[in-house]
Amino acid sequence: MNQKSYIFTPIVKDILKEGDSYPYSLYRQVDEKLFGLILKKEQLLDPTVDTSFLRDTTPVFIKSSERHYYQQYIQKNISEILDNDEVDLDSKATLINHIAIETMNDLFESDVTSENLIKIDKVINNTIKLMLSEYKAMYSMLKVTTYDYYTYTHCIDVATYAIAFGIYLNFTKEDLEVLGKAAMLHDLGKKEIDSRIITKHGKLTKNEFEIVKDHPVFSVKILRDLGETDIRLLTAIAQHHEKCNGKGYPLGLKADEISEFAKIVSICDVFNALTTRRTYKDRMSTFSAFQIMCKEMMHDLSIYHLREFIQFMGYKDI
Q1: In angstroms, rounded to a whole number, what is the distance separating the alpha carbons of residues 18 and 46?
Q2: Which residues does the UniProt record annotate as the domain HD-GYP (predicted)?
Q3: CB count, 10 Å around CB of 2?
Q4: Are residues 313 and 235 in contact, defined by beta-carbon separation less than 8 angstroms?
Q5: Rounded to the nearest 10 degrees, how much is the dihedral formed by the CA atoms of 29, 32, 33, 37?
Q6: How far apart are CA 143 and CA 134, in angstroms?
Q7: Strand partners, 63
Q8: Which region, left, alpha or beta, applies to residue 314 given φ > 0 means left and ψ of -120 to 50 means alpha?
Q9: Which of 181, 9, 22 is CA-nearest to residue 103?
Q10: What is the DSSP letter of 174?
Q11: pLDDT exceeds cutoff 90 at 203
Q12: Neighbour count for residue 195 (Cβ, 10 Å)
């Protein structure tokens, strides 16, 4: 038995199968503060081991200290997992979300490198692959969006909504890749802003808001400095805070001057911000968020894309 001095993290059990071994140990919960070892690190899951836990509802845990090994295993095997019909859609969506969280957290906590961005591409491609595999997969991905607001989880959620909405609009796979990456990286420039401003509890001062308004420019600069040349990607990121009435930033562009991808990222950005919880406010319901977007932001957002987004989300009477 392992005592409570360890911290344990639940994992997706569907990826476990007889005949395999894993770079982390597996545990089951015995009581509230006690965990029992099921399988040692690198031990084969074979007939010498009690495998009954694979066929019941028993949750499986790993030590939180071995979470990095779990993430590495998932990233290495994600293509095979997505192709495995024995792994259900919700589990696949959860695994992609776990990879995305780890990848985006690394991106915001360390220097941005070409290697980081390659990992982002893989997350986007796997998200698109799953969503295009069957229609229900889109909703499995939407179910794993978060209720609490952090910059990196917000970026993941905005990308998830944007890709799903793009599929609804019949975008090509190439367009989905650009749109998804733009949504995932739209707030990257916040890395360049004092964290005390980004994490402030409550309303920003006028001066603080002026500083935050530079983040789309910073995002584009970071990507250009790393060799990014896709103009549609850079434009969508640069314009995601522009408003159709010309009162947005950083350039005050009007409706016909704003790219379609930027309009979509903007809607997904606002929707996620309204429906996630922060330290100074509770989350809104989807219905309440749409009411605000339609009544208070109707001149800010693209009316066509907002109406389509609302219908995509299953609301027809707003």
Answers
A1: 6
A2: 130-318
A3: 15
A4: no
A5: -10
A6: 15
A7: 8
A8: left
A9: 181
A10: H
A11: no
A12: 11
With tokens 């109707």, the residue in question is 298
Terminal C-alpha separation, the chain: 55
User: What is the average pLDDT across 162-188?
Assistant: 97
Residue appearing with tokens 């392992």? 2
Measured between alpha carbons, how far is residue 153 from residues 18, 149, 198 in Å?
A: 34, 7, 14
CA distance 85 to 88: 7
| Residue limits of CATH 1.10.3210.10 in the chain | 88-312
302 alpha-carbon distance from chain centroid: 23
Query: Cβ(26)–Cβ(16) under 8 Å?
Result: yes
Structure tokens at 309: 């987004």
Inform me whether the pLDDT recorded for 279 exceeds 90: no
Which residues neighbour 73 within 8 Å (Cβ) at sequence distance 6 or greater?
22, 23, 24
For the whole prediction, is pTM greater than 0.70?
yes
Tokens for 235?
Answer: 């434009």
Q: Please report, to the nearest 10 degrees, the dihedral formed by the alpha carbons of residues 138, 72, 109, 177 taken in order.
A: -40
Residue 58 DSSP label: -
Compute CA distances 28 → 25, 37, 41, 95, whole Å: 11, 7, 14, 20
- 124 token code pair: 């986007």
> Is residue 178 over pLDDT 60?
yes
- Between CA 246 and CA 257 the distance in angstroms is 9
Residue 147 Ramachandran class (φ > 0 left, ψ -120 to 50 alpha, else beta): alpha
Burial of 41 (0-12, 13-18, 19+ CB in 10 A): middle
The fold for domain 88-312 equals Hypothetical protein af1432 (1.10.3210)
Tell the residue number behind the tokens 């016909």, with chain if given.
256
Place of tokens 């006690």: 34
